[in-house]
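Lab meeting prep.
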Amino acid sequence: MSSTRRVFLVGATGSCLLPRLTWAQQAKATPHIGWISIETQPDPFIDGFREGLRRHGYVEGTNVILDLRYSPGYIDGLTAAVADLIRRKVLFIVSSGLATRAVKGVENVPVLFAISGDPVELGIANSLNKPGRNFTGSTFMSLELAGKRVELIKEAVPRLRTLAVLSNVDHPGEPSERRATEAAAHPLGVTIVYVPFSSIGQLDTAFDALRQARPDAMIVFPEGTTMSRRVKIAEFAGAHRLPSMFGWSEYVEAGGFMSYGANQRETYVRLATYADRLLRGAKPADLPIEQPTKFEFVINTKTAKALGLTIPPSVLLRADRVIE
């Protein structure tokens, strides 16, 4: 049974500094913002969101209050937390990653999210341009990136012929990402070995399948479950001398080989722009769901050395960041 870690931050009221609020008739109150996450603390994403709030003139504990709720690794632990945030009349809730599933049924409170999957397929938006409901935010999903990751891992590991794809099938948009990956692999002469799973409890079974397949390298689709187990996945890849490609730099910082994708922390900094608009009276239904337009290529050369890999100079020179 998982337990929920709760942190309450309460500050003094600074009504003269407050922006005009229209949602839930809270114009004279210091706005409370709920935050839910299955990450562990210290949480780099809440730090990014705080930085974004500061850029817009919000001082935590003075003219805005953050009410943080955590359930590391488990969505179910957030159910009671979400209900309590609603009872406390938060102005809106910010859901980090996989935690968005815990607020999927919320209807009367605005929700800002940053997720890796497809919010339309998840059922929280009518479209990216016109969400039309009480949800908006950012999605990291980009099918163009799926193909680029295949190209980069092939260039970094020229001997690559068999590429395993470790994929959580319980992830909105997963079939599209799989098709994009397969389409990019075929012209390069790379065969895809698909290794699906649907829960944290199935990861060990997925690892057994990877061992039996004996691929030349592995791609891990970026999403909340693998993100929460990124250290374990990186350790598995290292133990089996398996070059690995991921979607976010946090995997590489945990010991993975390479990543290509959006900078998650910067996305949460950007999310504070939407928070500012909600604080000033905007409705989430009118705010288009954003997709990152800047991406970073990160390489862990320490991991490469442990794997016995020599990274081609053409690949190394293109890296935005090298972890040594």
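Slide two material, second protein:
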Amino acid sequence: MPGAGTIQPCTVAPPQAHARTIHIRLFAAKTLAIVVVLCAIVTGHTYEPGGLVDFSIESVGLMLLIVGALGRVWSAAFISGKKSKMLVCVGPYSMTRNPLYFFSFLSWVGVGLSFGALTLAFVLAIVFLVTHLHTISQEEEFLHGRFGNDWEEYVCTVPRFFPRIRSMRGTPNGSFEAVPFTRVIGESALIMLAYVGTQFIEYLHAQHVIPVYLTLP
């Protein structure tokens, strides 16, 4: 595996058209996710409210949201200020080439489970993968062009998306830029608020404030 930190420094950002395409795809993904969540607001689940199955599903959802939020902060601590400038391959980047996307994926699934519906979690997972995998491919194509052989060696040892925990490598020291790191912390805090929101919606369902037009497993 190539060394961490200062591998082939690069200050050139991705081509404008290339970056614009990625931003459009990510915007489309967020838009589709919002549509699914809006539908979930008027959707209930078939499990007994407060029952063992309902409790188990929502507990797993909460855990995924926590892991997703903390994982994004952890990943940002390694990449903030270095993205597209140097090849980072330690910490979470030693287990998966795209930890920020992976932990975001866990958060999306966690939102679906927090509604108490396995179907919503499945739909959000599919929406995420369909809308993000091509973006990941585009970004990796750019990185390949920037880092050449170092990137090829990195690809051979670290999986693209789902992490290989046994490949974890640390680093004795490091640095990051405060502004992008702080932004990720804010986004992660919003992820945790998602669970509060889903529980409040369930309460409004129980009080018949919000109607339920469809029930899903």
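Talking points for slide two:
Residues 3-14 have pLDDT under 50 and may be disordered.
The two ends are 44 Å apart (CA to CA).
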